[in-house]
Write a structure and sequence with these properties.
217 residues, alpha/beta, 9 helices, elongated
C-alpha cells in the first residue's frame, strides 16, 4: 500500500468514526464530547463495524481501543487506531475527539427528603437539573391532563373544572394542560421532596431528573 492509500484509509477512518461519535453524543463542544454509558457501549460496537467495513478494502489489519486520557480515569477516553501489516505496526494515532462518559449521581433519599427541590438542586449547584426537573414534571402533568388521568382524583367541587376542560377544542385543551402543568411544577419545586413521594414513587420521580437518581439505602 502506498503512502497515499494509507492517508486515504486514515481519512476515511477519521471521518466515519467522528460521525459515529457525534451520532452517539449527548453534547458536543468543539472536540469535547459527552456520552451516556449506554451510548458508549453502542459506540464501541459501531466503531468495530466501521473498521470491519474498511478493512476489507485495504491490505491492512485495523484495530482500535478506548484509551484513557489520564491514569485511573474511568470516564475520559480517546479512540486510538492501530494499523498493522504482516504483524508489524504501520501507524497508531488518536481520533481528535475527547469522550467523557456522563455518570448518574446517586443521592440518598433520606439525606434530602426534607429539602425542597429548589433547595436541593440550587444548594448542590445543579441549576441544569432544576430546569430539567421543572420542564419534565410540567410536561408529564400536562400529558396526564390531556389523557384524562386527573378526573378520577377530583372531588365534587372540582367537577366544574373538568366540565370546562371537556368543553374546549383540542388546541385549547393543549394550552390549558400546559398551563396547569407549569403551575403544578412551579408549586412542587418549592415543596419538600417527600411531599411528591406521597403521589409518585421514586422510580417515577427519578425520570424527572437528568443525571440524578434518588435511592433508598
Amino acid at each position: 500500500m502506498t503512502k497515499d492509500n494509507l492517508n486515504e484509509l486514515r481519512n476515511k477512518l477519521d471521518k466515519k468514526i467522528k460521525i459515529q461519535i457525534a451520532n452517539h453524543a449527548n453534547t458536543i463542544l468543539d472536540e469535547d464530547i459527552t456520552i451516556s454509558n449506554e451510548n458508549f457501549e453502542r459506540l464501541k460496537k459501531e466503531i468495530h463495524i466501521v473498521i470491519n467495513s474498511l478493512e476489507s478494502d485495504y491490505d491492512y489489519k485495523i484495530s482500535y481501543y478506548m484509551k484513557p486520557t489520564h491514569p485511573h480515569t474511568i470516564t475520559d477516553y480517546v479512540v486510538t487506531i492501530i494499523i498493522q501489516k504482516d504483524y508489524e505496526l504501520v501507524d497508531q494515532y488518536d481520533i481528535n475527539r475527547n469522550i467523557r462518559i456522563e455518570s448518574v449521581s446517586e443521592i440518598n433519599y433520606e439525606d434530602v427528603r426534607k429539602l425542597t427541590f429548589f433547595e436541593f438542586l440550587t444548594e448542590s449547584n445543579r441549576q441544569h437539573e432544576l430546569e430539567h426537573f421543572f420542564e419534565t414534571l410540567a410536561e408529564y402533568e400536562a400529558s396526564c391532563i390531556m389523557e384524562g388521568d386527573w378526573m378520577s382524583t377530583l372531588h365534587t367541587y372540582g367537577l366544574g373544572e373538568w366540565e370546562y376542560f371537556d368543553s374546549l377544542n383540542d388546541v385549547e385543551k393543549e394550552v390549558f394542560a400546559k398551563a396547569q402543568g407549569y403551575t403544578y411544577a412551579k408549586n412542587i419545586v418549592h415543596k419538600p421532596i417527600d411531599y411528591l413521594t406521597i403521589v409518585y414513587n421514586l422510580d417515577l420521580i427519578n425520570t424527572f431528573f437528568d443525571k440524578i437518581k434518588l435511592v433508598e439505602r
